[in-house]
Specification:
The chain contains three helices and 28 strands. The chain has 404 residues and is mostly beta strands. It has a single domain, classed as TolB, C-terminal domain (Neuraminidase). The strands form seven sheets. It has a five-stranded antiparallel β-sheet. The chain has a five-stranded antiparallel β-sheet with strand order 19-20-21-22-27, covered by helices on one side. A hairpin with a 5-residue loop joins β11 and β12. Bound molecules: calcium ion. The site of calcium ion (CA) has 6 residues, from loops. Calcium ion binds next to loops.
């Protein structure tokens, strides 16, 4: 049944591609020109000063970045690392089972910077996402964590290498033994975006009066922004099951992963007020009342947590699939997914652009090894037409949609 679904959806995607190629918009010609550009760029890593163009206009070919070579371990002995953020040259890391936040600089040992009080780890709940806000001379570390009665967001001043007292940002977020969400990130608009899972109560994802199964948008002090899509509500988008990944592309558009049930995991482009379908639809449904994912995967090969956008490429941490995924989108708007390191490093929890310009990813360590790692792998930049060629050398997967 699933195989048939896969084939049908894949064929549908292919047909859409063909339609795009013959609709008189000059796609074929532009693809040829991107190939020329690709050859001029091939074999040399373009300096990081050249920023990827994310416009999906066929006149503006994109570029992407791809991992090259073998990942090297830059931190080890972590207790299920969940999130990592930067403060100056330091990296601060949350660990799922404990409220202790650790920090390190490249090449140096881990050290504790303090403990977030009241963290309760049950199921997938625990010490989850981190974010950093700099206000003048003040540096705030934000943390999303589970308590004995749900989830909350707190912040602590980070000064002279240590965390200060806890300030409550938002209490009373839904929580439970599973589907706690927990990724937090400041957007380009300075607002704090938060993924909240449906806490194993699927119907809450469609309940506009519940914060479960939502992506929230709030001010740095937990208030409702005046320009949120639902007046007076923190809800930014709904119909999510257990999103744990947030990233913005070059155009400032928000994207998020969603951890599916037993059908489809998703990469979604998030629109303000958009409804992403759960639990009515999992994966692509073609119902205009709900926004379909841009890319979807069988759950055994993905199980997405963290999401990053780096110079034209999305990277997704695959927990269940124990691999890292990249998603690139070509100039015609067609996404393409590639898997890396399947089974090599255990469950991959988070991925981010590294302090050294490499791609970093957080893992739970190898099977039977409790020690979580942070790994670093170099990235190389290629032009859009080459992204597919490079990815074809890896293991392609996922079921693409054509972006309108
Ligand atoms: Ca969905």
């Amino acid at each position: 049944m699933k195989t048939r679904d896969f084939d049908r959806r894949a064929n549908a995607g292919h047909m859409r591609n063909e339609v795009l190629g013959t609709d008189g918009r000059g796609v074929t010609v532009v693809r040829a020109s991107t190939i020329v550009l690709a050859f001029t760029m091939l074999g040399s890593v373009i300096s990081s000063g050249v920023h990827a163009q994310s416009s999906r206009s066929v006149e503006s070919p994109t570029s992407c970045v791809m991992p090259v070579g073998n990942p090297t371990e830059i931190a080890s002995g972590l207790n299920i690392p969940w999130s990592a953020v930067y403060v100056g040259s330091e990296v601060l890391v949350s660990q799922h089972g404990t409220g202790e936040i650790v920090a390190f600089q490249l090449g140096e040992e881990l050290r504790s910077v303090g403990t977030v009080p009241g963290v309760v780890a049950r199921g997938d709940g625990g010490m989850l996402g981190l974010a950093v806000l700099t206000e003048g001379a003040n540096i705030w570390l934000y943390a999303y964590h589970s308590t004995s009665s749900g989830n909350r967001i707190v912040r602590m001043a980070y000064s002279e290498g240590a965390l200060g007292e806890v300030q409550l940002v938002l209490d009373g977020l839904p929580g439970g033994r599973g589907h706690n969400g927990g990724r937090i990130a400041f957007g380009p608009d300075g607002m704090l975006y938060v993924t909240v899972g449906e806490t194993r109560n699927p119907d809450l994802a469609q309940d506009r009066n519940s914060l479960a199964g939502k992506i929230l948008r709030m001010t740095p002090t937990g208030g409702v922004p005046t320009d949120n899509p639902i007046n007076g509500s923190l809800v930014y988008s709904l119909g999510h099951r257990n999103s744990q990944g947030l990233a913005w592309d070059d155009r400032g558009e928000l994207w998020a992963t969603d951890f599916g049930d037993d059908g489809w995991d998703e990469l979604n482009r998030i629109e303000p007020g958009g409804n992403y379908g759960w639990p009515i639809i999992e994966g692509r449904g073609g119902n205009p009342a709900y926004i379909d994912p841009v890319m979807q995967w069988h759950t055994q090969e993905m199980g997405p947590s963290g999401l990053a956008y780096v110079d034209g490429s999305f990277f997704i941490a695959g927990l269940t699939g124990q691999r890292l995924w990249s998603v690139t989108i070509d100039a015609a708007g067609n996404p393409d997914a590639t898997a890396y390191y399947a089974g090599e490093f255990g469950r991959v929890r988070h991925v981010l652009e590294g302090r050294d310009g490499n791609l970093w990813f957080l893992t739970n360590g190898r099977r039977g090894d409790p020690g979580g790692q942070i790994l670093s792998v170099p990235l190389t930049r290629v032009a859009a037409a080459e992204c597919s060629r490079v990815s074809a050398a890896g293991r392609r997967g996922g079921v693409p949609a054509t972006i309108p």
